[in-house]
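Quick question, first post here. What does this chain look like in 3D?
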Amino acid sequence: MLIKDNYTKSIADENIASTSKEIARVVATNVSSSLHIVDDLYDSSMEVVVAKTSKTKKKQNN
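> Answer (accepted):
Ran it through. Tokens below.
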């Protein structure tokens, strides 16, 4: 789309910048949420490993 009017072009540029900023914010939020989920999953898996290791050691000591 060719915009000849500078005022209209300026508004279009502002809209594009605003939309790009919002897209970047949403992507950053999603990445942050994903990292928190992965971190929680890792913590949970480590708790299971520690619990199983502890249980195995108890069985070996008895």
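The CA atoms of residues 11 and 17 lie 10 Å apart.
The mean pLDDT is 86.
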